[in-house]
């Protein structure tokens, strides 16, 4: 397996652990000084904070993984994961088809940066647009 494929697998393993949710296992795929930024510019110190944030925003949430795209940047690999979110809002309404895009930087076998974007904020503000 090439180095870049290993980096994509690291991201895939991280996402699998995150969705369990198992933030302790998810943290094993990240460097100690990882930089995590969620939608709205929210900085997260670690996967425990991600789980806590998701717990406040959703009753539960999972990812329907789409494609993984990657590029070699010399000293690191950039991996993009896209797909959709599905789950339940805190008020009990279910949702699906909520687009997401995650960008990761992987260096020396660890995720060193994660940036997250999705439609959740827009869907919460204007629920009608979620109906397509």
Q: How far is the first residue's CA from the last residue's CA? A: 40 Å
Low-pLDDT residue intervals, each spanning 5 or more residues? none
CATH topology type = Nuclear Transport Factor 2, Chain: A
Total DSSP E strands: 6
Strand order of the largest sheet: 2-1-6-5-4-3
Strand content: over 45%
Provide the structure class: alpha+beta
Helix content: 25-40%
Oligomeric form: single chain
- What value does the average pLDDT take? 92
Shape: globular
Please report the first level of CATH classification, the CATH class. Answer: Alpha Beta
Give me the Rg, rounded.
15 Å
Separate helix tally: 4
**Main sheet attributes: strand count, strand direction, barrel closure:** 6 strands, mixed
Any idea how many domains? 1
CATH architecture name: Roll
Brief rundown of the structure:
The protein is 30% helix and 45% strand. The chain has 132 residues and is an alpha+beta fold.
């Amino acid at each position: 397996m090439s180095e870049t494929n290993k980096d994509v697998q690291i991201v895939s393993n991280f996402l699998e652990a995150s969705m369990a949710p198992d933030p302790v296992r998810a943290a094993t795929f990240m460097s100690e000084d990882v930089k995590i930024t969620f939608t709205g510019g929210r900085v997260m110190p670690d996967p425990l904070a991600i789980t806590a944030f998701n717990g406040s925003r959703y009753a539960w949430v999972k990812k329907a993984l789409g494609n993984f795209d990657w590029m070699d940047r010399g000293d690191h690999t950039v991996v993009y994961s896209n797909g959709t979110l599905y789950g339940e809002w805190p008020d009990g309404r279910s949702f699906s088809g909520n687009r997401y895009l995650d960008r990761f930087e992987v260096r020396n076998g660890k995720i060193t940066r994660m940036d997250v974007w999705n439609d959740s904020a827009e869907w919460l503000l204007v629920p009608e647009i979620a109906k397509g």
